[in-house]
Write a structure and sequence with these properties.
Elements: E1 5-9, H1 16-26, E2 34-38, H2 43-53, E3 58-64, E4 67-72
Length: 73
Amino acid sequence: MNVTKILDAKGLACPMPIVKTKKAINELESGQILEIHTTDKGSKNHLSAWAKSGGHELLEYEEENNILKFWIK
């Protein structure tokens, strides 16, 4: 996967991971990929819903060592 930008939102509670994701995705061009790292367990539902409502595509999600990783296009 060709990631354009990585956003470190670890340690932030909702709604900050969404706020930072929105800002970061607005800096990308259409088709580019943003990788988000967060520790907020609510992000799984919130980021997938946000991506869908904003017309973005959640490409992949994984959890590793209590860090949630998302790839949004």
